Each structure stands twice: as C-alpha cells, then as structure tokens.
Amino acid sequence: MNTKNTLKTTAALLGLGLLLTGCAQDGANATGAAASESPATQASSLQASETWAKAAQTGMTAAFGVLHNAGSTDIELAKVEDQAGNVIQIHETTGTGTDAKMSQLDGALKIEAGKDAVLEPGGTHLMYMDLKAPLVASETASLTLSFSDGSSTEVPFEVRNFTGAKESYENHGGMDHGSMDHESMNHDG
Amino acid sequence: MLLGTSAAAALGGVLAGFGTSQAVAGPATAAAPAQQGPQYLPFHGKYQSGILDAPQAHAVFVGWNLNWRDGGKKDQLRSLLKMITDDAQRLTAGRGVLADTEAEMAAGPSDLTLTVGVGQSLLDVMGGAKVGTLPGFAGDKLHKRYGQSDLLIQFCGQDPTVLAHAVRAVSKNLRGLADKQFIQRGFMHQRGSGDTFRNLFGQVDGVNNPQGETRELAVFGTPDQPSWIANGTTLALRRFEMDLEGWDEVATSGRDFALGRRQSDGSPLTGSVPEDPVDLDAVNEVGLPVIGANSHVALAMPRSAQEAIHRRGYNFVDVEASGLLFASYQRDPATSFIPLQRRLAEADLLNTWLTPRGSALYAILPGIEPGMYLGQQLLG
After folding, report:
1. Which residues span the domain enclosing B170?
2. Is 60 exceeded by the pLDDT of residue A141?
3. CB of B79 less than 8 A from some CB of A
C-alpha cells in the first residue's frame, strides 16, 4: 500500500507540473517576446493563445482566440491577411441574442498593455469574408497580424469543426455589412 | 475472461497484489486505506496513460474509420493525430478542447485518460510497422460493427459525465474527418478495488493480472525485445456477450468447475485465497482432477512467460446484450494473446455461455514528451 500511495503522490506532483507546463506552453505557442522585456514593436508584444478557426468549405468563416499584449504600451491590430489572399476583417458584435449586430471594426483593434483581446463566437472575431479555399478541420490556418506601427507576426489558428453561433443577422436595424452576401447571413461570428 | 491467468507466476514473479488483497476483503473487513481522490493523470510520458494505471471505474472504447480527402494520406493522418494529441492533453488536464462549447464539463479531476491506437490500415499509411489483425477464433459470431476500425481511442475515467464530455468533444472534432464505427461503454468497480472486479457472471475477474514491473514487461517488453515499436504496445479488444439467462440455471458447483475458481471469493479450487496456485495436477479422493483440463483457468494459464498479457477489461450492459469488453494489452499478440485466445475459444467450458461479437487489434502508439504529437515517432 505504501508503494501505491507513494506512486499516487508522485503522480499528483507530476500532474501539477504538467498543468503548469501546459500553461507555459500556451505562452510558448504565442509569437512575440517575453513580457519582461521592453518590446521593440507591437507585434513582438503579442502573445496569442487558444487560437482556432471555424472549418468551412466556402463563403464566410471566422477565427478566434486570445490576443494578449505582454508589452508595457498599448498595441493596435490594424490588418489581418493570409497567404491565400483571403479578405479578413476584424469584426465586433454589439448587443446579444437576436439583437446582436456585427460590423467591421471602425479602425484598429486596440489591446491595452497587459490586457487581452478575447476573440470569440458572438463577440469580436476575425472574419473571412469569402474563402478562396476550404479550411479543413485538424489543419492549421496561418494568419499574419499587422499592427499600427507597421510590425507584423504570423499566428497559427487550428481549424476546428464548429456549428454554433448561428445567430441570424437579418437587417435588424443598423446592421451594416457592406458588400456581404446577404444570402449567407447565417454568419458565424 | 481469462480469469485466473497466472501470468506473474509464469514469469517467476511474486504476487502480493494490491488488487488481490482488496478482492478478498469483504464489506465487514473493508478497512480500505485512505484513498486519494481522482486526479489529473499525466498525459505525457514514456508510455501512454490508461495502460499500466489501475483501471478507472468507467471506460468508453470508440472506433473510427477515416475519410480520406484528395492529397497525401500521411499529411492528413498527421494533422488528425496532432488534433487528437491537443484534445487529449487538454481534456486530461481538465480543460475543454479548442472550440469547446461545453468546456465546463471537462473540469474536475477524474483520472481521465485517453489512450490512442491505430489499426494496421493506419500503420500502413505511417509506413513500415506491422501488428496485423486478429485471426478468426472458434465460436466467433462477430457483428461487423464491433470489428476492426482504423482508429481507436480508449477513454477511461472515474466520472461518467467528464468521460461523456471527453468522448463528445473528440467526436465533434473528428466530425467529417472520420466516421464512428462503434462506441462500447464499460464499467467495473468503484475506485479502489485494484485490478479485480466482479464480471456479470458474478466471478472475480482480474485475479493474478501481472503487477508492477511484470506488467510493464508483459505490455511493453524490453529495449532488446520491444513491442512493434519502443514504448508502444498492442491492444486486443474482444466483445463477449454473456448468456445470463442460461447462467442462471447453472448451480454454484458447476459454475466453479467451469471456471476453476470459486465464485464466492475467487480462490482456485486447489486453494483457499485468490492468489493460491492453480494446481492442475491435484486430484480428488476418487482420482479425478480437482480443476478440469477444460476449465477456464486451466486453459488461460500462460504456457510460457511469452504468453503473459495484461487484462484491462470492463463489464457492459446494453439494451440488447450484456457481457465483457475484454481489453488485453500485450507486447506481441502472436506469442501471447492469440495462442491463449485460440486455446480458450476451442475448449473453455465457459464458452457455453459466451458469444464473441467483436474482435479487433490495435497498435498503441508510444508515449510522447510535451511539444510532440502522438505518432510523431513514425510520422515526424
């Protein structure tokens, strides 16, 4: 029994170590410099984690995650691009439920020093306006995030199946999606 | 099945099993040692979790077949295994997977393990390695659904809700990439009984399962004589339906003779406690063998150290049938599980009440370090 209990204790300690390692890894997964340094660029202040994009064959889809500003000054995400040349906009959602309205963010997405921008279904997100090629679940979509100081960094978004967040965004007074195709307004965001 | 397999004895090991001693402790003597509650078990390591660990109370075995897209299969398999690796390390640490809509259900330590194996079909994609498939055995009346699949994940845990979420989360992520062929749910004892449990015949199952280093040797071999890959192993999954109605009609003496052990406490008919030796030479006062040559224990006894297997089976109760999900881990099925199962399939007295419905063999991938993905040793 003693052996057994010793093993259990060891397992517990290992488990704890793993959790900590796991957290550290999320940080390591992020691009950019350590928080302790004074980063030279906005891009190097970015630590992205939990980044994923919704699998889709065609049309619109979205990318989500946590963008952490590990620097000591505010950063501003100005532009999102990818290798395929997809049009990707930064969208914000205001209101909730059937009153939710989505629109392209007016200007850059500001992330205050030490704070997170949480990109999530139903909230702020990165919107692919019309996929040029499918985003296949289990694969990785790479996005280039550019900041207002002209710096940029590449962030991997894991592609996952997701069928939620199908709020209808039919003209609910004030919604303005510009050139968006209104036939596919089951907008994933 | 394979009750009373004296694997450790065959290997010359000494059994002072935690599980065995727990098995004989009845309610009156249940002075159980202080148990730690369920934990977050490590996902990374030399071996995958869920193999050598004490069996959790609940298990779900899920088999999938992959849907291939255009393009290289190796790349598709690699990204799928990367996703499963990410899912498994999150879930076992109590976190939701990416895009999880019910991440709250992942919280709470429950000894959750996900153990990933691949069939020969995927090994072929990975290149090189061979584990093969299980041959047919006498008496097999297999349902295709419970046969070989491309991919298998053994989910085990103490909390059925956490377990259900884990299965659901991984299934959602695999949607479109793979079709589920089977989902087989099993259960055993409450936490703390070690390897032994009552199967649905009422028998003490898991007696003399190899313990400690003996178990590790039986499952993973040695550096000189590893399984199909270093730190990997194989899982044979057989689904046995039990004829519980027929079993009801069998008297205790008949049950004990068919097994070679007593239903009451799991002791062999040639002993008084479960760990006593199974003596096939012992005769009664009229000169007849005490343990019949066709009894389950006689046939299940390993003929050599090479035949040792590690049983990690579970009971199941479905709408249409009840029985045992026989999960057996071994270094090399060709020298252990297959000859042993063949012997049992041909003559075991218990076969009267058993119908094999499922049969599959998987190559269990080696363990990984943080930053790696399962299968990287082959695909990297």
Report:
1. 42-379
2. yes
3. yes
